[in-house]
# Entry
Amino acid sequence: MSWTVLVATLRQRRWMLLWYSLGLVSYSWVMVWFWPQFQGTEYVDLIERLPEELTAILGGSAADIGTLGGYFETEYLGLMWMLIVSSAVILYAMKAVATEVSAGTMELVLAQPISRMRFIVTRVVGLVIVSAVLTVATFAPIQLFGPRYDIDLPGETYALLYGLGMLFVLSIGGISLALSAGAREAGRPAAIVGGVLGGMWILHILAEVSDIAGWFEPFNLLRYWRPADIINDGTVAAEVWWVYAGVAAASLAVAVVRFVRRDVA
Amino acid sequence: MGSVSGAGEDVATVGNLCVTEGALRMQVVETRGLTKFYGRDRGVEDVTLAVEAGTTFGFLGPNGAGKTTTIRCLLGMLKPTSGEARVLGERVTLDGAALRGRVGYVAGEVRAFERETGAWHIDYIARLRGAPAPSALALVERLEFDPSRKVRELSKGNKQKLALILGLMHDPELLILDEPTSGLDPLNQETVFEVVGERVSRGATLFLSSHILSEVERLCERVGIIRDGRLVAEEDVGDLIAKQLRDVSVTFDGPVPTGVLDGLDGLSDVVVSGEATLSGRIRGDAIDALVKRLAPHTLVDLTVAHARLEDVFREYYAHDTEVRS
# Structure
């Protein structure tokens, strides 16, 4: 890894990271603040009477929306949060390689005595840092402000949220980086990642009513992200860890291999 | 051990060393059958050349001929489809970091981080190289470059100055310059020629890619000419100058004297326009004869311009290209 490249990478992404983090902190705080007022409202009754398919489209979960986990999953972590953090890491991954190749700055950097392996490993470390910051910006406000608003979760639950949340972000970022690492410009790989995630989302909804869509569920990355279960029960199935850790590790390995073997100009 | 001949002298080669007129010299740049295709599109094909240590080599060709592709293969940015490239005695690989530490590269199209300043770039490249840049400040002053401005605020010429500073500031053994004076005003071009000349006089080897004949004439001893991805000629600059065409226009103070340039060897395409102006195309080695023919007459104007590179190719190398292809 190169400290020089890492510092430059984080410096050049600082505004993006700051605005995304501020957005997540604000969103999390609003969700925490709204929780006491949300409980027992007619809105909850309305949501609970909706068909499961419609609830799923709204980002809802199988969990009761009247529970803390159901509330957070339906109103925040089940859809909007995934959109926000996915866009952030897709943006990072595209700028990490594809945009630099098309802008020509990759040629400037790789004309210097830095190996491709060191360069791409540094960009991977940058992605890990970005994923960690986004995860902390999401869950730290809940942990910090929650006790004031009747949200009192055990430390183990927060540890699971931080850990699995970061792996989820890292797996999306890893897939994006793997595509970016072999691309000459950012448009196509970004569209592919966005399209695949959108397709997964649609299949996940259709799986409620279609056996064919249901067949894809084991391969659907979004299906394993169940924050309601973590918040309500404090549990995560072992296979979920393996899925996200496996996807993250494999995609980042692919990114490294593709980059060290490609033409960069 | 093999041998090749160039410019009328015998050169014996052992690995990347060669013996020229009894002196042992390393071949700093060497390609053998270098070929690069982008899918079905040709980049370069079967390029074989060698540049000895401490010499200056011009890589001349029109835009799109394959100059930049060759350079990118030399720097390990592109993986050759076939053939090989060696730089400073080492085979070029995609991951040849140590090798690039000994090379100074100025890209043809200046690309830098738009939101960063020149000073940030100088510091960044110095850190990547793991050593302070001894010549950075001197180059900034000589090129009258303002390092405090962001790249996006710089003109094309100033971006070119930044690229030159970044490429030359660490005193590399091998300078690979791709159209280095593009966008620079004549004064700064002159400064670049001086700086490069100084580096060469201190022992650096120059590999200069250009489509400007006069630039190559000014800086280089030998020239390789590339066209349509193939190296069509390699010769001494003196020979190229002799071959090189000039467009000449002469305006007399009266009607064009009858038969003034008749029979002048090397003159072609003669056209008389108006009463007093005569123009044509002349070979470089016939300039002296032309001037002597004109000397007895009174002239109002005389212009001699380098013919376009394409015209030189058409005149001298078209046949080579046809035969090879």
Summary: Chain A touches chain B at residues 2, 4-5, 8, 12, 103-105, 107-118, 260-261, 263-265 (CB under 8 Å). Residues 3-25+79-261 of chain A form one domain. DSSP finds 14 helices and no strands in chain A. The radius of gyration of chain A is 20 Å.
